[in-house]
Amino acid sequence: MGAFYETIPENIYAWILQQKMLWVATAPLSKSGHINVSPKGGEYFGLIDNKTFWYMDLSGSGCETISHLRENGRITVMFQAFEGSPRIVRLWGKGRILERESPAFNDFIENNSVEIIPATRSIIIVDVHQTLNQVFEKRKEKFDAGKEDESMDHYWAYKSQWSIDGLPGMQRGLDASAKYGVEPLVKMTGPYAPAAPFGPKSFKLGHYLNYQIAKAKTTQVPLLDVLILLFVALIAGFAIATYAPDLMQTCRANIARLLKV
């Protein structure tokens, strides 16, 4: 299961700090721009409080993260368990760059007792506005035991029909939601939660309408049906273009005779 929070829950502090590797993802605003994912880790990251994460940016062959943060500030940090129970933690937030030797950089490393190395390029501060803590469970055993609501269709209807930003997702999830009446998981909390109809309060009517819109957008018409439709339209157009003038003259003549009578 997964749970969303507006802060970093204290009960996962220790788990985060025990990790040896993490990933950061950023992207430019341009539609043609490239999304960047970078591995980080070692001892070069930490938590300041329940809304602030930091990591040390080391010199590398590129500077995509810094460039993206300078433009728009958006950043996602992800941790993944390599030992113990399966778990993924994501932090969404706005990133700030403290470049080496700047007053803000010097104050930070002094106040937080951070040891830098020759390759240290900057400190990235992430002001977190949303956290997702995901732990995974076995559903097959429950479904095999007779719990129909533990089926994958129910799971997809609950988790996979809408994105965190309210975009339509898996078509089978949308279909299963309409079939079984499964309310979608409200992803994100607080001001970042998607607006209605993605929440439980407006699920019934609003969700159904959006389901129909999403289905219409994603439904694929078989190619053979399209070709048949085009062929029929072509024949109809040819017939109209060929016989319409004669039909119009015949109609006019008949109307004229009726008027004379």
Short description:
The chain has 261 residues and is an alpha+beta fold.
Look at the structure and give the CATH class of the largest domain: Mainly Beta
Please name the fourth-level CATH homologous superfamily of the largest domain. Answer: Electron Transport, Fmn-binding Protein, Chain A
The amount of beta strand, in percent, is 15-25%
**Overall outline:** elongated
Rg for CA atoms: 29 Å
CATH architecture of the largest domain: Roll
Mean pLDDT, to the nearest integer, reads: 84
How many helical elements? 8
Number of domains: 3
Helix fraction by DSSP (H/I, runs of at least 4): 25-40%
Question: Biggest sheet: strands, sense, closure?
Answer: 8 strands, antiparallel
User: What distance separates the N and C termini?
Assistant: 84 Å
Order of helices and strands: EHEEEEHEEHEHHHHH
The low-confidence runs, each spanning 5 or more residues with pLDDT under 50, are 197-204
Task: Tell me the structural class.
Answer: alpha+beta
CATH topology of the largest domain, by name, is Pnp Oxidase, Chain A
Tally of strands: 8
Pfam family, one: PNPOx_N
Organism: Cercospora berteroae
Transmembrane segments: 223-244
Keywords: Membrane, Transmembrane, Transmembrane helix
